[in-house]
Task: structure prediction
Amino acid sequence: MKVVYNEAQKRHYPKNFVSSGVVTQNPEMPERADRLFASALEAGLQHEVTVDQGLAGISAVHAPEYIEFLMGAHERWSHRKGASPEVIPNVHPGRNAPGYPRSVDGQAGYHMADTACPISAETWDAVKLSASTAVQATAHVLAGEPSVYALCRPPGHHAFADMAGGFCYVNNSGVAAQALRAVHDRVAILDVDLHHGNGTQGMFYHRPDVMTVSLHCDPARFYPFFWGHEGERGEGAGLGYNMNLPLARHSADDAFLAALDRGIDRIRAYAPGGLVVALGLDAYEGDPFGGLSVTTDGFARIAEKIAALRLPTVIVQEGGYLCDDLGRNLASFLTGFGAKHKV
Ligand SMILES: [Zn+2]
Result:
């Protein structure tokens, strides 16, 4: 299996994060990518360097004004007297705001769901390269490779068509799914990250051609709070093509695997031509977010079940934060997947 990745994705190094009202170091650190990359190589994957794939893949799933905002926000922001080094919103539109603001601070509130996705001078280039990683990996799968691992960083599944959030700017899994649609009539995204893939859900909520299935810690008391409940099933033509499988806090392997069986059954019945796995590793019992209690061996078992779908698969990196076993958990998933996957 190939691992697609470019070390320049590490240049994005967000500083700001607010947790329980305390400003602290943002946990989406470049070292995550170092550990994941080293582990992918140790697991026997072959490295292919990401080259810039342009804007087409991003534009296919994101709004033009949002892309323009991401590209230009930092420069516009830094012209303001006394501006912070990172774009961080301090206003939010709330539920009833009708207008689109012209100023960069208004647009920051409009386009950013929270303060966890600051924009520095280096952010856009890294975000674009991370999306290029997804595009390049998907091209290999479309050309006949059974599976490719896209080491996307920064991650993407909290990014909506016009809104960043939770360390995410461009929705790499959505980019990959849309690219698969060039060949396949139906595509599924299976999100096993600790957090609900709210951006991905929002992106495809009205569409029957991309099924979205997410397993995650119950959002009633966990980020992203406002999305990820079982009753959200899609709308309009998309009704029935979104499936949420929230799990009780600290659920371990058996509960996770039982929910995964339900998600996989639904995907099998949908009979997609291709699959995107939104691979977060933060459901791990030792992850600093402490939401679920999946073990290192559990990731191999999750991977084996997904591999049994026998679909052309793009594995897109999402969350998973610094802890001793981050690399081992990726290796466990990739090894489990590779051992069972045939198309
Ligand atoms: Zn996550």
The longest strand covers residues 210-217. The beta strands are 2-5, 16-19, 22-25, 46-49, 147-150, 187-191, 210-217, 242-247, 274-279, 313-317. The CA atoms of residues 142 and 183 lie 7 Å apart.
